[in-house]
Design goal:
The structure is a single chain. The chain is α+β, with helices and mostly antiparallel strands and 277 residues long. It folds into two domains: 131 residues, Diaminopimelate Epimerase, Chain A, domain 1; 132 residues, Diaminopimelate Epimerase, Chain A, domain 1 (Roll), CATH 3.10.310.10. Helices cover 16% and strands 40% of the residues. The protein contains four helices and 18 strands. It has an 18-stranded mixed β-sheet that branches. Strand 12 and strand 13 form a beta hairpin. It is globular, with a radius of gyration of 18 Å. The structure holds the ligand N[C@@H](CCC[C@H](N)C(=O)O)C(=O)O. The ligand N[C@@H](CCC[C@H](N)C(=O)O)C(=O)O binds next to helix 2 and helix 4. Belongs to the diaminopimelate epimerase family. This is Diaminopimelate epimerase. Catalyzes the stereoinversion of LL-2,6-diaminopimelate (L,L-DAP) to meso-diaminopimelate (meso-DAP), a precursor of L-lysine and an essential component of the bacterial peptidoglycan. Homodimer.
């Protein structure tokens, strides 16, 4: 069968977006891995699926798969692309779109300037929510990795994140430590790993080694997790500009009882059709 899709990106974090409201298809893990391959397939960091909601109070169900075929709970850059996609495809005319994800509900606002504002929910620091094996909820946790003791923040944005503060993201050991922390046995469902350089209380640089996709040019939930961790440690103050290799995001978290808010772009690259084998 031929599957219609759209290629999109949020700051270079790229997606294959598939409308399963008007099409019928079932993608197996192996097919997702093939489609994600940058030489033998279409190439993407995540596959985003638009489905009808199961909850009648929601507009859509938003499902996310990493390049390795694993289904995940949340994707921030994907959420912005999702909002642009459902409006461009005329699946909705709303500017405020409510979606259900495996990590909880999200509210997406398509602004008049074309940027998308996402209510990302509250960060969760309880280690059990990631899940992360740790004695209790604390701003930093000691983690033994390859003979070194690292001190990481552990945050759930629906999906799990570890955040490590570094002096300089340009020389941070992302390729070496990223895969080791991602697969650390204390993270039973693996983890996304952020390397954060604090530039000032309102500005960070960030590189993220993503669970199931490797290092990406940007990670929306990673940006939220880094800002939440930095604010909790007293290093940052809302709003914070996050510089990622693919561009910048603005993250607000003015009040610990409030949701984090992310504002950024969403770009459509091309539409295509692919034969599913
Ligand atoms: N790129 C994303 C996060 C995608 C999911 C992540 N790799 C996971 O496994 O949790 C973002 O922009 O948030």
């Amino acid at each position: 069968m031929l599957l219609h899709f759209t290629k999109m990106h949020g700051l270079g974090n790229d997606f294959m977006v598939v409308d399963l409201v008007t099409q019928r298809a079932k993608l197996l893990d192996e097919q997702i891995r093939q489609l994600a391959d940058r030489r033998f397939g279409i190439g993407f960091d995540q596959l985003l699926i638009v489905e009808p909601p199961r909850d009648p109070d929601m507009d859509f169900r938003y499902r996310i798969y990493n390049a390795d075929g694993s289904e995940v709970e949340n994707c921030g850059n994907g959420a912005r692309c999702f909002a642009r996609f459902v409006r461009d495809q005329r699946l909705t005319h709303k500017h405020e779109i409510h979606v259900e994800t495996a990590g909880g509900p999200l509210v997406l606002h398509v602004q008049h300037d074309g940027l998308v504002r996402v209510d990302m929910g509250k960060p969760r620091f309880n280690p059990a929510t990631l899940p992360f094996e740790a004695p209790g909820d604390q701003p930093l946790h000691a983690l033994e990795v390859a003979g070194e003791t690292l001190h990481i923040g552990a945050i759930s944005m629906g999906n799990p994140h570890a955040v490590l503060q570094v002096d300089d993201v340009a020389t941070a050991p992302v390729e070496r430590l990223g895969p080791l922390i991602e697969a650390h046995p204390r993270f039973a469902k693996r983890v996304n790993v952020g390397f954060m350089q604090v530039v000032s209380p309102s500005e960070i640089r960030l590189r993220v080694f993503e669970r199931g996709s490797g290092e990406t040019l940007a990670c929306g939930t990673g940006a939220c997790a880094a800002v939440a961790s930095g604010i909790r440690q007293g290093l940052l103050k809302s709003p914070v500009t996050v510089h990622l290799p693919g561009g910048q995001l603005s993250i607000e978290w003015p009040d610990p009882e409030a949701s984090l808010v992310m504002v950024g772009p969403a770009t459509r690259v091309f539409d295509g059709r692919v034969a599913l084998t």
